[in-house]
Amino acid sequence: MSQSSPLAGVDRARLTQAYPDIFSPSPLKRIQTVATIAALVGLFLFGMMWLGFSFEKLATGISRLGVIIGLMFPPTPGNLLHLYLKGLAETLAIALLGTMLAAVIAFPLAFIAAKNVVAQRAVHFLSRRFLDSIRGVDTLIWALIFINVVGLGPFAGILAVAMSDIGSFGKLFSEAIETADTKPIDGVTSTGGSALHQIRFGIVPQVLPVILSQVLYYFESNTRSATVIGIVGAGGIGLYLSNEIGQQNWDHVAFLIIMILITVAIIDWGSSQLRFAIIGQRAIA
To answer: What is the chain's percent helix, strand, coil content, to nearest 5?
Structure first.
C-alpha cells in the first residue's frame, strides 16, 4: 500500500506559497543554473585537455602498472636488510627530533601570538603572519632549501620538519591558549601573582594536555613526511626507496613499502593510546 508524502496536501501548498523561488524558479534563474553547470563542465574538460589527459595513455599506464605489481612479488630485502633498518631508524629520528625541536621553538612564540596574553594588536598581527608565512611552505620545499644550506643527509631533514611544524604548532598552541579558562588566571592574580605566574600556574596546566596531544599527532604525520623528503636527499628510508625505484628493483620497493606501512601503523596505534591517556578518549572523539 502506498503512503502519502509528508509534503503532500496542505503542507506542500503552504511551503510553495512561502518559498516560491524554490518550488517554481523563474526562467532566468533556470538559465543561470544551466549556464553555471555548463561553464563548470567546460572548465573541467578544458583543464583535462590542457594537462594532457589521455585515455590511451591511461590504458597503457594501467597495463604497465599491472606488470610492476607483478614484479613486486614476493617482496624481499635481498642482502640489504641492515641498510633498510638503518634508513628506517633515521626516518623515525628525523620525525621525532624535528617534531620536538619545532614544539620547543613554537611554545614561547604561541604565547606572543595569543590575544589573551599579548594585548597589543600589532604584535599579535605580526606574530600570526610570521607563523602563517612559515606554515605556508611545504616540508618538501624546506628540505630542498636546507639540503643546499647544510648538505645532504638527515640533518637537513630534521631542520625541514622542524621549520615546517613551527608555524603549525605556533598557530595551534596559540589557539589553545586563547581558549583557556580565565578563572584560574584570576585566582593567581588575586594572590598577587605576576604575569609570569599567571602563565605558569593559570594557563600552562590547562593547555599542556592539548599541546602534547597535538605534538603526538604531528609526530605520526611527520613519519610519513620524513619518508618523502628522504627521496630528495634528506636522509632516511626515502633515499633507499628512491634508489630502488630508479633501478627498478620492484621486489625491494615492495618490501620497503611494507616496512613503512607497518611502522606508520604501529606509531599510529601507540600515538593514539598516548593521546587517549593524556586527554581522554571522549575528548578525541
So the answer is: 80, 0, 20
Contact indicator for 137, 200 with CB cutoff of 8 Å: no
Residue 175 · residue 166 · CB < 8 Å: no
How far apart (Å, rounded) are the C-alpha atoms in residues 102 and 139?
13
The kind and range of the H/E element at 49 are: helix 27-50
pLDDT, one tens digit for every residue, the chain (285 residues): 445 555 555 677 777 777 777 777 788 888 888 999 999 999 999 999 898 888 888 888 888 888 999 999 899 998 899 999 999 999 999 999 999 999 999 999 999 988 888 878 888 888 888 888 888 888 889 999 999 999 888 899 999 999 989 999 999 999 999 988 888 888 888 888 888 888 888 888 888 888 988 898 898 888 888 888 888 888 888 889 988 999 999 999 999 999 999 998 898 888 778 877 776 655 444
Residue bearing cell 619545532: 102
Q: Which of 223, 234, 222, 253 is nearest to 84 (CA)?
A: 253
34 vs 37: CA distance, rounded Å: 5
Kindly give, in sequence order, each residue whose CB lies less than 8 Å from that of residue 102, ignoring residues fewer than 6 positions away.
Answer: 161, 162, 163, 164, 165, 166, 168, 169, 218
Please give the model's pTM, rounded to 2 decimal places. 0.76
167 and 131 Cβ atoms separated by less than 8 Å: yes
C-alpha cell at 77: 630485502
